[in-house]
Structure formats: structure tokens, C-alpha cells
Write a structure and sequence with these properties.
141 residues, alpha+beta, Thiol Ester Dehydrase, Chain A, 2 helices
Length: 141
């Protein structure tokens, strides 16, 4: 298991954009599973929406991307560098995510052909699929 300080040693993101609190499972070059506790105190929920807060779908994509980025950077021994988005495909939002939910994101390596890495990603709440997407990253040398 990797905790927030371990994650910050790999990913360049910082509060409020660091959306992964723990990496629960890691199989380099295969898959990673991460966790995000959605809180009413998260700054992006203040205006989304004031009387009915909903975790933004685009931030679900970002949270999955951070798990995928962690997986790709650790797998390729590139900790501390940046994995840049190059595409998001087949994104689907299946259910609403609210404060109090625990988002479990999984990234699976689909293809690595440097400098690109393709991942199949899912996000679940209570074992129910809430978001999925294919994410592609560019990894500079």
C-alpha cells in the first residue's frame, strides 16, 4: 500500500489537485488501484452544486488518470516526472458521486509503446461502476 507521501514522491500533483489518497494495490506494468474519499470540504464541490454537491465527472477522469500516471511512472522508473494526457476515449459516466462516497479507481495497462502508454480505467463506488475511460499518456524521456 502507498500513502499520500509516497504518492507525492511519484506524482507532481499537489492540493487541491492531488485526488488520490492511497494506492491500495500495485502490480507494475499490469494494474493499480487507488482511493479517493469524496468530502463535502473538497473545494471543487462548493460551486458544483451549492445545494446538491456532486463530484464533477471531469475530476473522476483526473482521479483515474492520477492512478494510471502513478502506475506508468513506477512501472517505467520515472518517478517524479510528468505523464502528460494525450487522449481520453470512450469516457462514460454511469452514476452520480456525492460527498461521503469512496471512489475506488483501477487502471490497467492496455499498451506501452514508448513514449506512449494506454490505460483502461474504471472508477467504482460500493462496487458499482460510476465512470470508465481509455486514457493515453505521453511520457517524456
Amino acid at each position: 500500500m502507498y500513502y499520500i507521501n509516497d504518492i507525492m514522491n511519484v506524482l507532481p500533483h499537489r492540493y487541491p489537485m492531488l485526488l488520490v489518497e492511497k494506492i491500495l494495490e500495485l502490480e507494475p506494468n499490469v494494474r493499480a488501484v487507488g482511493l479517493k474519499n469524496v468530502s463535502n470540504n473538497d473545494p471543487y464541490l462548493i460551486g458544483h452544486f451549492p445545494n446538491d454537491p456532486i463530484f464533477p465527472g471531469v475530476l473522476m477522469i483526473e482521479a483515474m488518470a492520477q492512478v494510471a500516471g502513478f502506475l506508468s511512472l513506477v512501472s517505467l522508473n520515472k518517478e517524479g516526472t510528468i505523464a502528460f494526457f494525450s487522449s481520453v476515449d470512450k469516457a462514460k459516466f454511469r452514476k452520480i458521486v456525492r460527498p461521503g462516497d469512496t471512489l475506488i479507481m483501477e487502471a490497467k495497462v492496455s499498451k506501452i509503446k514508448l513514449p506512449f502508454c494506454k490505460m483502461d480505467c474504471t472508477a467504482k463506488v460500493e462496487d458499482k461502476l460510476v465512470c470508465e475511460a481509455e486514457l493515453m499518456f505521453y511520457l517524456p524521456k
